[in-house]
Specification:
two-stranded antiparallel ribbon; 2 domains; about 25% helix
Length: about 160
């Protein structure tokens, strides 16, 4: 099995308090997965895989509309509710195939989150270990969600870049 060789965290202070951090993981110093979310759920912390919002095209004008819309945002035409499963608004971009791999990723990422959160809470000095998580300490010092939206530095989704 591939090994996680690096975990980078960026802590968030979401309005509902459920989103705790974003994570980036590197496998074998060769493959990176960004935008994993550490979420505080009913049964404790868990890792949500990166996902994208699903869109459906208007049968009349062709505009892409969020899957939950009943009417087109451009022409107002009624969208076909049976065309796609409207319960599924997002689809994972990357995800583990089996539960063993999911547990491995979750254990490593949440373990790293807890370790760094404890260091911050205890006011640990800037040792070599805490320097590895510079973005967790400095960039994310509980930035408001509004600031994240404006200056996230994230590339737009492929559909946005292609004007689809």
């Amino acid at each position: 099995m591939v090994q996680i060789t690096e975990v980078r965290l960026s802590r968030r202070n979401s309005k509902d308090g459920k989103l705790k951090a974003f994570a980036t993981i590197t496998f074998d110093n060769q493959f990176v997965i960004r935008d994993l979310k550490i979420i505080d759920g009913k049964k404790g912390l868990f890792v949500a895989m990166p996902s994208k919002k699903i869109y459906d095209s208007c049968p009349k004008c062709g505009k892409k509309n969020p899957i939950r819309n009943n009417f087109c945002g451009k022409c107002g035409a009624r969208l076909n509710p049976k065309r796609m499963d409207r319960r599924e608004e997002h689809r994972d971009i990357a995800h583990p195939i089996n539960s063993q791999t999911r547990d491995y990723i979750q254990d490593i990422v949440i373990g790293e989150y807890k370790k760094i959160a404890e260091q911050i809470e205890s006011g640990a000095s800037d040792s070599g270990e805490s320097r590895r998580h510079e973005d967790f300490d400095k960039i994310s010092a509980f930035v408001d969600d509004d600031e994240i939206e404006e200056d996230s530095g994230k590339e737009p989704e492929l559909a946005d870049r292609l004007d689809i």
